[in-house]
Amino acid sequence: MRPSYSSSSSTPSPSSSIVRAPPQTSIVTPFRSHAPLRWRSGRISATSAAGAGRQATLKSRLAAGETLYGMFLLSGDPTLAEIAGLAGYDYVVVDMEHGPGGISSALTCLRALAAAATPAILRLPESSAVWAKKALDIGPQGIMFPMVDGASSAAAAVSFCRYPPRGLRGAAHPVVRASCYGIDDDYLEHYEEELLIMCQVETEKAAMDVEAIAAVEGVDCIQMGPLDLSAAMGFLWKPGHRKVRETMADLERRVLATAGGGAAGGAYLSGFAMPYDPPEEMKRRGYSMVAGAVDLGIFRQAAVEDVQRFRTAPGSSEAADAGEEGDENEKAYWSE
């Protein structure tokens, strides 16, 4: 269910959005007959200087105690991004780490999500100042840093998101999409407050230091990484192995004990649903953000089932073999 937004916020119509210089007025002189424009939850809205009509952000919804349900977009396809937004997900993670796309394809997905008023999070290919700068300039509501191994790398990730003197982010705010290309006059005043910073814990070293990572000022969420963690523990392709699940359960308890919520000095718990760990169960255990699907996984499952349905129709000799082989592969993949 989406949050309600103030009726005082409205997107200007195409006809009213064209600003023409009045007679005897230089076209280079600023002419504004509307309230300042602000970027909120993937769309522009007119607001007063006092901030009336501000829309809910992922951070404000987490602070209000909501559990947010999202999906990962690996395809980099804007049509699938738009469908995900229209379907009602609370957020969509545009994945540049394992997806084939980069900043240009991510930008088209962000525009599609904005049309569906759905917040976007960008997962970076690596935790670096250059990738963070380019990602933040196109205006996501959240950013996810992979392979954060300790408090120092978490602090570095936060610094990549902030302008000097508080950080290292390169400044082009008057002309980038994040500030509505400079139309959002007070972008510098609110961008830190509204940007959700997520650090992935997916190595054994990070698992040992998870409290320290969560305690870093500016880190909002600890994102669990069961696939990479299982590989680091020697159980590649076996994230459901008993030892991996025990480690994950321990990490969950320790992150939840940090009392996430910004001022409390802790971090929210975020993660992926798995075949052995459905999103409803994760919500029950205290996760604040749950990604329950991957776009390519949804399409793969639908495509495979469609072909199998045809192959195993009455009269087909493949019916029994297809069913047995699928069951065995699933058991092997998620075996403990």
Written overview of the protein:
By secondary structure, this protein is an alpha/beta fold. The chain has one domain: TIM Barrel (Alpha-Beta Barrel). Helix content is 38%, strand content 14%. The chain has 13 helices and 10 strands. It has helices spanning 58-63, 78-87, 103-115, 129-137, 151-160, 187-194, 204-208, 210-215, 226-232, 242-256, 279-285, 295-311, 319-333, and strands spanning 37-40, 43-46, 68-73, 91-95, 120-123, 142-145, 196-201, 221-224, 268-272, 289-294. The strands form 2 sheets. It has an 8-stranded parallel beta barrel with strand order 3-4-5-6-7-8-9-10, surrounded by 8 helices. A two-stranded antiparallel ribbon has the order 1-2. α2 (78-87) runs parallel beside α3 (103-115). The longest helix has 17 residues, at 295-311. Keywords: Lyase, Metal-binding. GO terms for molecular function: aldehyde-lyase activity; metal ion binding. This is HpcH/HpaI aldolase/citrate lyase domain-containing protein. Residues 1-23, 310-336 are annotated as: Disordered. It holds the Pfam family HpcH_HpaI.
